[in-house]
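[09:14] KT: can someone run the structure on this one? pasting the chain below
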Amino acid sequence: MSTDDYGQGVTIASLTDAPDASKLAKDIVNGIAQRSVMRFASASARGATLTAPVDGMATWLQDVDRLDVYNGSAWVTPQPSLTSTTSGLSVASGWSLNDFFGFRQGRSVTIDIYLTRTGGNIVATGGNIADTVVCTLPDGWCPTHSTITSCFDTGIVHGGWVVGTDGICTIRTASEDIASATNMRLHVSFLVTT
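[09:31] RB: done, structure tokens below
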């Protein structure tokens, strides 16, 4: 018997084999099914059916909506690729950019921003600063479902900031003044819906 042209090891019946349509159909289906994404109601249903899985088999578990791949010793869920960016951040007037990193893996996004205040002092009046826009995140790196709240740190002053679905980053609270030439670090992690 020969095998398929794609190097997948699917056996093809030969014209010299004894005629047996049932065996021919079963051999074709068995050869292809184990190389496709097989669907099971649950992991226990998969375990009852696939008693000797082989490296590279892929299954979809319907009860948890999850793709798993057999790695030769266990069923594992493939991790989405990690993407990153260091560009596209738009800095507001009165600030300069020292560093920017965005990391995304699947639905999880982490943003690290390092700015310096180049404008005048931001004065804490009545124990708080006025809302001040510091930057805007690049397209594709913004929250998708609501405003996200986090904290910033200057090394001297600590406060809160928010990032909206439009990517605008606004510092909102600080109990002390933020002086000109102060370095500020902003960090946030959030989940996106797409």
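[09:33] KT: thanks! The mean pLDDT is 90.
[09:34] RB: yep, looked fine to me
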